[in-house]
Amino acid sequence: MEKFADEAIIEVSSGSGGNGCAAFRREKYVPRGGPSGGDGGRGGDVVFTVRRNLRTLAHLRYKFSFRAENGRDGGNAGRYGHNGADVIIPLPPGSLIRNIETGSLIRDFSRNQENFVFLKGGNGGWGNIHFKSSINQAPRKALPGKHGQTVRLKVELQIMADIGLVGFPNAGKSSLLNRLTNARPKIAAYPFTTKIPNLGVLTSGERDVIIADIPGLIEGASHGAGLGFYFLRHISRTSALAFLIDLSDNNYLEAFDVLLNELKSFSEELAGKNRLIIGTKTDLAETSGRLAELAQKYPAEEVMGISVFSGEGIKELTYAFLRLTENHKESSNTDSIDDTDIADDGLYDETLNEIIDEETIEGDDL
Hints:
single chain, Rossmann fold, 2 domains
């Protein structure tokens, strides 16, 4: 539990280019050879990559500075310096990187899961071999390497799941996750047993459904009360929501309205997701008839009853989860992904090297 981390602030630096070399060819029978200084190597890049085996940002908790290797200086006899090694920063799927100063989004790794070159290393400086001309046979000038860039970033994690479980503490979310999946969350007879999000995979035939269980909500969660506010964003990317209502609680008829209002206060988009209402603990004697009352109050909603203890309704719920996930995938396939919301504030230029290569280098500037 203590290893769970969904936010991190890191500092990343691309490598500087190596300096060009000013040298001359010297051999036994060639006492006045021409310039032979090689170019400096290019600095390493800062590269983000998605690793599906990662689930949190805990690996960034203690290592928060990442620096690519500098390029090596050029040498004599036309030897070019080695390029600096890139620094590779692994992230779990669903990560976001933001400009820490403005909060603008730089990259969303739920859409783009390929390697992302964030900062390019500086170009290596030219050796004096480039400055030989008919009027200057022995140039003693060489260029220094271009400096790398350093940027501080905020990395956030939004867990990617198909179904998000929403409910008050002790509504049975962790028990349901334990019953449907291979996850083994902590289960106990007291509120707020779940303190971190838990993920489980429901497998049916060749289909997998990822289910997320977040800490229980309480009234006022959207304004910071309880534990739910901090983790509400982890269900913002789910295909659908399952509202778990404890039928043994005397406030079972008001529970759904309270939960939905909290989600609306946090995000209208989140509250508008496909959903179903699940009445839990139907095996208890006092819940007899309450499921029908719940369904009668919300005729426009899909209402189901389950008992994790007896297994009642579990098979039907599995089919409902599969259906909700499939419907979401079909609707998503009709929508094109637009990356125009990813900010470009000018700090990170992926064409830096092209710009440098196109610069005109004048001898008087050396």
